Structure formats: structure tokens, C-alpha cells
Amino acid sequence: MHARLGLLLLAFLCQPAQAQTAASTPKALSAQVERLAALLGDGYAVGYPAATMSQSLSLADKHAVVLAVFTVEGYKGGNNFRQFLAAFSPEQAEGKTHYSLLDVIPIGAGGWRSLDKLEAKVTGQSKLGGSVLALPALENISDDAVNFPSKKTHIRLLLEQGRFKEIK
After folding, report:
1. How far is the C-alpha of 31 from the C-alpha of 34, rounded, in Å?
2. pLDDT confidence bin for 68, thresholds 50/70/90
3. Does residue 136 register a pLDDT over 70?
4. Count of alpha carbons within 13 Å of 146, Cβ hemisphere only?
């Protein structure tokens, strides 16, 4: 039974372009995201697990990474939110997959932009071997309501040596 579970989990991790919703995000990854959301809150804000999305990718250097987009809402007790993107390194130990945090970056908020789906693609490689990622998003323009961005855009990020940097 454990061998089958391990094989299923390995098959899940090897599918690079499939995004997963909160319902299908592995428990160990969900637990890491919950802890991260608690750290990024302000005492009032809480994570919104139902909005969590994850995706496994094979980077330009052939290393696997798992991306997670998650939402933290209720900062200062208000009706506001922030979206974050975290990168995790999946590691096998004792037949289980563990997720070690590489980096986290804010990628959305009310009045700014948001991701409704996680469909990251590796679009290039830096001189130092990092991967350039593109994520489709929606951005607010002047006529948009705060939580309803309408302009289609792509967020471009460099993931190099385990750190994110947004490319403008």
C-alpha cells in the first residue's frame, strides 16, 4: 500500500504543467502553506485554504519545484487580501514527500492584480542557470472595482538560486 502511494505521489510530482486546487493539493504542502500564511498575517489576517493552488514544474536546470499560490485575508481586521506565490523543493524521505520552502513573494492584492488560476510556464533561463517564469494574471485598471481586475497580463519572475525576483 505504501509503495503504491509513493508511486502515485511521484507521478503527481512529475507532471510539470498541471495546476491543482486546494482540494487536490497534497496534505504536506497544504500544511506548509498554512504555516506560511500564519507567518505572513498580522494577527487579524488568516489564510484562505480553499483558494490555494499548486503546480509542479521542471525548471530550466531540470530541478523540480512546486509552486503554491495562496491568499491571506483580513489584514487589520478589514475586508482585504493579499496573494502570495511560494516555491517549494519537494524532497523524499522515508517514503514521504516533504516540501522545503525556497522563497515567497507577494503577487496580488485588491486594487493591484490577482491570479485566478496557476498556469506557470518556464519561458527562459538566466546566465546563472535560473529559470524565467511567466504566470497569467489579471491587473486592475482605473475603471475596475478593487476586487475585479480586468486587464490580462503576465507576471514574469526569475527564480534563481532559490530566490524570486520580479522582472518588469
Report:
1. 5
2. very high
3. yes
4. 6
